[in-house]
Write a structure and sequence with these properties.
The chain is an alpha+beta fold and 98 residues long. It has helices at residues 2-24, 28-38, and strands at residues 47-48, 54-57, 61-68, 71-81, 84-93. Strands 1, 2, 3, 4 and 5 form a five-stranded antiparallel sheet that branches. The protein starts with a helix and ends in a 5-residue tail after the last strand.
Length: 98
């Protein structure tokens, strides 16, 4: 029984490590979702440029800073269930620290 539990823990740990690695890699799909969120709540707002000015990634979230016609906006994107699930993004005015 201990051996089976050990293998299960090893597999779960490997799965979480692999998913953490994938979460920390920038992806065009999430970046496009973040760009769409940057001006979602403001009328007449436009994102300047094709790419974010600053990108920060971690194993559980991604943060993007976009320059918009209303000033800099930080968009935070994370998964529904920490390492798994669909990505969702929310934006707020401000700047990321370099």
């Amino acid at each position: 029984m201990k051996r089976i539990l050990g293998y299960v823990l090893l597999i779960v740990s490997g799965l979480i490590a692999y998913q953490s690695y994938l979460n920390a890699q920038p992806s065009p799909e999430v970046e496009a979702m973040a760009k769409g969120t940057a001006c979602a709540s403001a009328e007449g707002c436009e994102v300047k440029g094709d790419r974010p000015n600053v990108i920060q990634t971690s194993v559980v979230a991604r943060r993007y800073q976009f320059l918009t016609s209303g000033g800099p906006v930080v968009v935070s994107c994370d998964r529904e269930y920490l390492w798994f699930g669909e990505w969702s993004c929310a934006g707020a005015p401000g700047e990321l620290a370099y």
